[in-house]
Amino acid sequence: MSTTRPYPPAPGDPGPEAHGSAAAAPAEAGPPGGPARRLSLVEVSGAVPLSRDFTRQALRDWGWLPAANADHRAAAEDVLLVVSELVTNACLHAGGPAELLVSRGTKVLRLEVSDLGNGEPVPRTPHRAGRPGGHGMFIVQRLCLDWGVVRNADGAGKTVWAELAAPS
Predict the structure, then answer these.
(1) Quick one: pLDDT band at residue 125, thresholds 50, 70, 90?
(2) For residue range 18-45, what is the model confidence (pLDDT) as tens digits?
(3) Quick one: pLDDT band at residue 154, thresholds 50, 70, 90?
(4) What are phi and psi of 160, to 5 degrees?
(5) Which residues, including other chains, have CB under 8 Å from residue 123's CB and lie 6 or more apart?
(6) pLDDT tens for residues 59-73?
(7) Which distant-in-sequence residues (6+ apart) come within 8 Å of 57 by Cβ?
(8) Is 134 left (phi over 0), alpha (psi -120 to 50) or beta?
(9) What are the backbone dihedrals phi and psi of residue 122, each rounded to the nearest 5 degrees, phi first?
(10) CA-to-CA distance for 105 and 108, rounded, in angstroms?
(11) Which end of the chain is more exposed for a tag (fewer CB within 10 A), N or C?
(12) Is this prediction's pTM over 0.90?
């Protein structure tokens, strides 16, 4: 499932984008119920591995890693894979990522990747597993509880967000 809005939601909007765009929140701020981590990716070399390392450290700080069991390890690996896919898409299709926001609540971890691109990510349909490339958003769709796109109010760029379940 995905949700696209032409601009960030109004304060108090209960929709899945209620956290707003990554560019709108101050550093180290986040949604109620959980801390957030922000990483600037403007003109950064190696944005994908840097984003994975940054997210891995946040997961360590939040007690997801080292994983207590196989289910927790799988949840952490899913988060790292989704970060890789979102940042890679921004690199390949949106002129590069601007920022990564990783935030957590008690039951959900939210990833937001902002860029200045005009395109919109969509899973390729039908998905053909045997073909090279084009699997990123299919992977995001399969691993996440929900994902979507929030357009910047000024029309330049967007934030692609994804939410994953916290390990139980």
Answers:
(1) low
(2) 344 333 333 344 443 358 999 999 999 9
(3) confident
(4) -100, 125
(5) 137, 138, 140, 141
(6) 999 999 999 999 999
(7) none
(8) left
(9) -145, 140
(10) 5
(11) C
(12) no
Amino acid in the structure at residue 108: V
- Contact indicator for 8, 153 with CB cutoff of 8 Å: yes
Q: Residue 41 is encoded by which pair of tokens?
A: 């990716």
Supply 161's token pair.
């967000």
CA distance 14 to 9: 9
